[in-house]
Amino acid sequence: MRSATDFNIHWYHSLQFRVSAIFLTIFFLIMVTIIAVVSAIGDHLIENQAYLKLSKAGDKVVSELNQRITIAESIVISMADIAKVIPADDARFTSLMLSLLDRAGSKHLITGGGTWPEPYIFNKTIERNSHFWGRDRHGILNFYNDYNLPEGNGYHHEEWYVPAKHLGINQRYWSKSYTDPYSLQPMVTVTAPLYDNDKFLGATTVDLKLEGLQKLLHEATQEFGGYAFALDRNGRFLSFPDDKLARLSTPSSVEGSLLPYITMEELAKEFKTFESLARLLRIQNKSLNSPNGYQTDTLATALANDSYQINLPEAKIIASLLSRPESKNAQRANELIEQDYFLNEAVFVTVTTMPKTAWQIVTVMPNSSARKDAKALFNQLLMTTIFIVLIAMVLVWALLRYHLTYPLFQLTQQIQDGLTEDHRSQQLIKTTDKGELGALTHWFNRKTEQLLESQYQIQKLAFFDPLTGLPNRRLLYDRLNQRLASAERQRCSGAVMFLDLDHFKHLNDSLGHSIGDELLIQVGNRLIECLRKEDTIARLGGDEFVVIVALPRLNQEQIYEHARIVANKIIEALDVPFELKSNHFHITTSIGITFFNQAHFGAEELLKQADTAMYQAKSNGRHHYCFFEKDMQTKADERLRIEAELRYAISHNELNLVYQPQVNVDGECESVETLLRWNHPKRGFISPDEFIPIAEESGLIIPLGHWVIEQACCQMKKWYHQGKPIRYIAVNVSPLQFNQTNFVNDVKASIHRFQIKPEQLMLEITEGVIIDDTQAAITKMHILKELGVKISMDDLGTGYSSLTYLRLLPLDELKIDKSFINDITTDPNDAVIVGNIISMTHELGYAVIAEGVETLEQQQLLLKQGCKHYQGYYFSKPLNEEDLEKYLICETLTA
Description:
With 895 residues, the protein is of the alpha+beta class. Helix content is 49%, strand content 18%. The protein is built from 26 helices and 28 strands. Strands 20, 21, 22, 23, 24, 25, 26, 27 and 28 form a nine-stranded mixed β-sheet that branches. Strands 1, 2, 3, 4, 5, 6 and 7 form a seven-stranded antiparallel β-sheet that branches. A five-stranded antiparallel β-sheet has the order 9-8-12-11-10, sandwiched between helices. Mean pLDDT is 83; it is low at 250-256 and 417-427.
């Protein structure tokens, strides 16, 4: 990199000189090319203008034909409604049908119509029972019974009838075109199906005459000196400028005889100059009538087999029309044809295809007519463009000189003056320029190197998690807000997934933070591997991750299914054991999922919803996902309120203890179980089943459990000095409290503080204590046993691991859960289970006590099976200190 003293700018190196020279050169080059460019633009404009006029002409014709189609369909639908309800009342039926077919405004269009029931539908003895009315040469509707005669194939095999069997209730079928025998005008038949509770009863038809079609086409195109014609779905002409040319003629034809229209293929064979236009029509027909697969082929075969009037090629066209989705928009194709049959010059052609009938309206404009109107516009456009370019270049040159070249020179000086510190240089921009840009690049690179490095470090600290390298909370909010804005604009959706690793704290506490950090890094890498690049993965902190998944425009069911797939993919990816310092560890995750679209939820609210759903997933057993629901938020808010009030209650002594006697076979109280109660000053009694789980989830169970042990030891000391016959007091211990590192020391401190004997305290634990780290729990239990503290296994039989570890645990007592005691006298299975537990407990050398004993029969059965200690409402409900003393006095007097 050159030093600052290397830059001595000469006038011919300056930007001001070079910009002026470049602009002069560019101007002359533009003058050379501008004519060609404008010519190309002019040709494009001429073509667009021609196709616009042709499209308007086609739309005019389509609009008129759609009105006729609408009239015919409304009549045939009304006829179908009448035919389903009153076919038996012949007089009324005939009157209503004739009034529909002969209504004002449609007589010149509707040439006939009728009802065509399936064999033996409305009359069990008549196979052919149609009612058809057609106009004679005077336009009067007459009833025709020809279709009901026994001779011939019958109307059930007609081309306009057979497709009706394959129509939906709201579908209509338009037949191929044919010629009205009186007016010699083209006509078509529209068919509507008759259904009764999904049963096909037959069909109704209306014959629509396309009278005056050629006049309509001529009026639409006469403005630009072109012409137009129409084809039906089979490529048969419905009109043509030269009517005689497009009709079938024979040597025996006489004036006024029936002359049907020929197809465009037949005309192309006879006149080769029509082939270019025929080719365009073939391409359009192929795109509309191409088969759609096996179902279409099957339908075509069925149509061909059922009708003697439908061959297989035509059946495939009908099947394709019946199978394609209904559309309200006409389709268009545009093309420039070099030589036209009629006009003998190049022409612009637009083919407009009507959606319901597949009729093609072909509008043609001569090239000369299109260019005649555009020539003056082209010349004006050319001169205007040259003038504008000239003015623009002068203005741009002046602006560049004023706003770029001179300011760049000044900016160079400013940057040079501001760069006072001597920092290591880094080549960020390469240039061989010897003017202002070269000097600017020199000083800009030196300053930018410092700024980029500082910016990179700031951005990394501000937006990325330093441990995993994933986006942090700030960047997560930014990307989520971008997704929300995009979802609102594009009307798409997305999912927010809140991940929390199950039992991560236990692993972190037991194995150390270095192992925990390595696990978090590997979790982040696996999330990156199993998700898409467009998805955002962020770490909020601790063991919490958030995933933003972009979803396409899907319905509600598809959105939920997509989210399930992603959630299961994440769970499966994290299920694979992690290798940490040559050891394998297994950890699971719980996922909460919420969705966003144009519902205007903010980022904060969405994360709150996902977090709420995640806690619900944990409550449901962990290692799973859960979708957010509105009532979850209400429950979450209630949970937070109880948690806050519980914190206040702990600090303001709103909690109290009660004691439930534990009696022997003689009914004598030998011990009590300490139970926690909360009498809220406003809400009254709150059940432990409601606040204990919240205390465990929030960690409040640790100070709360410590307080209970302290109070129990204090109460035991009091009873001991009063000479009460209570050998020990039992306290429930949460797994979270038990697994605390200082739990044993806390128990020792409480015993010493209140000067009680260790054997006067019994700790009741559950299976949750040993599930996470069995060996550590057993070691801790041995320490307590050596101290003299009694240990009881509570809720025996309700978990999956109790029987496996019983022989390993240093227990004094097993407590049979009340769920087995409830039905012990009525359910033989419960009685057998309880008997086996009692026998096993005796064999292991442990004492056994049954909780939840509420009847004499239960106590007697338990005694018979060998259980001699009981707890339950049959003996006493939980009592406060005063009531318990009364209970003990009454027990003494009774004895």
